[in-house]
Amino acid sequence: MYPCIDKGFSDRLSSDAVKRGLNTEWLGQQPIFCFGVVETTNIEANRLAREGTPEGTLVVADGQTKGRGRLKRSWASPPGTGLYLSIVLRPTCAPNCFPALTLTAGVATASAIQQMGLVPQLKWPNDILISGKKVGGILTEAVFHKKDIDFAILGIGINVNTSKEAFPDSFRNQATSLRLGLGEPVSRVELLQNLLIKFEHYYGLFSEGNFSSIIHSWSELDSTLGSGVEVALPESRLLGVAEAVEPDGTLLVRDRSGHLHRIVAGDVVHCRIDPFTVHHEKK
Ligand code: BTN
After folding, report:
1. Is any ligand 1 atom within 6 A of the Cβ of residue 194?
2. 59 Cα–ligand 1 center, Å
3. In whole angstroms, what is the distance from residue 153 CA to residue 88 CA?
4. pLDDT tens for residues 122-162?
5. Which string of DSSP letters, residue by residue, matches 116-139?
6. Atom 11 (ligand 1): residue with closest C-alpha?
7. Could you tell me if the CB of 86 is within 6 A of ligand 1?
8. Is the CB of 84 inside a 6 Å radius of any atom of ligand 1?
C-alpha cells in the first residue's frame, strides 16, 4: 500500500481524513484502504472481499493505471484529480436485483455531486452527466456462489479536478469534471464523505427492497426518459423512446411500431434525430 499523495487544501485522501467528522452509521466506519496508484480499485476490493473483509470496506486510490468501465471500456484515472473508489458489498437479495444496485449508486453519486453545488443528471444505466457531458460512472461487478451473490464490488469514478487536457483525445469532448462545471476546485475528501452518507441512505432502501423509492429518486435526476434513444444491443440496435425505468432497473423503450422492449443491459445514446424514422434494425 502506498501513502496517498497530499495535494494540498483538504484533498489528501487518507483513511483519517475521510473518517474525520464522517456522520455515517456504518459506511466508512469499517476499514478504508487508501492507495496511491493501483491498476484498479475494483481488483483490490475483490481481493479483500475474497479474504473476508466486511461489507462496507472501502478502497480508494489516488490514481489508476488500468481503470475500467462498463462494456470493457477503460476509465481514465489520472492521479491526484479524480475520485476512484470501490465498496465491498454483501447484498442478500436475489441476483436479479443487481441492475438496481447500479441505479442506487447512481442516485447516491448524483446526490453527493448536487451537494457540491452542481446540477448532475443520470443517463441509464450508469452515467452521471453535467451539462450533457460525462462526469462520473458506476461499474458494479458481482461474484456468485452457486446462484446467489457472494459479494459485489461497487466501483465509482468521478472526474473531480480533472482538466480538459487530462482526458484522452477520443473522449475529451464528451467528458467534464466537477471543477470544470463549478469553476473552482472541489475537495475529494468532502465529496467522498457526502457520497458515503448518501450511499448509506440509498443502500438502506435497496436492502429493504424499497426499489420504487430508489427509482423515484433516479427518475427525478434522469436525462433519458421521454427522449429518443438508440440502444446498442448485442445483435441489433433499437431506436425508440425511453419510457420508464422499472423497479428492477430495466429500461423500457417503445419502438415505432408500439412494442415495448425491456432493456436489461445495453449502451444508450440520446438521439438528436426523430427516433421513429428508423426502428429495430439488424446490424
Ligand atoms: C463507466 O462509466 O463505464 C464506469 C466507470 C467506473 C470507474 C470506476 S473508478 C473506480 C473503479 N475502479 C475501476 O477500475 N473502475 C471503477
Report:
1. no
2. 12
3. 5
4. 999 999 999 999 999 999 999 988 888 899 999 999 999 99
5. TT--EEEETTTEEEETTEEEEEEE
6. 155
7. yes
8. yes
What would the pLDDT profile of 53-97 be if each residue is shown by its tens digit?
999 999 999 999 999 998 889 999 999 999 999 999 999 988 888
Which residues, other chains included, contact 212 with Cβ-Cβ below 8 Å and sequence gap of 6+?
247
* Rounded distance between C-alpha atoms, residue 151 and residue 123, angstroms: 25
pLDDT tens-digit readout, 225-253:
998 999 988 788 899 999 999 988 999 99
Please tell me the distance from the alpha carbon of residue 113 to that of residue 136, in angstroms, as a whole number: 10
Cell of 108: 447516491
Contacts of 162 (CB under 8 A, 6+ apart): 76, 78, 81, 82, 175, 177, 179, 180
Ligand 1 mean position to 86 CA, how many Å? 9
pLDDT, the chain, mean: 90
Place of cell 448509506: 200
CA 100 to chain centre: 12
Cell numbers 470544470 correspond to 180
Question: How many whole angstroms from 274 Cα to the centroid of ligand 1?
Answer: 32
Closest by Cα among 219, 213, 134 to 174: 134
Q: Which of 72, 75, 141, 153 to mutate to test the pocket of ligand 1 (most atoms within 8 A of CB)?
A: 75
Amino acid identity of 109?
A: T
Look up cell 452457486; give the residue: 146
**Is the minimum distance from the CB of 149 to ligand 1 under 6 angstroms?**
no
Backbone angles phi, psi at 138, to 5 degrees: -120, 135
- DSSP code at position 98: H
Intra-chain end-to-end CA distance of the chain, in Å: 46
- Nearest atom in ligand 1 to the alpha carbon of residue 40 is 14
- 126 Cα–ligand 1 center, Å: 10
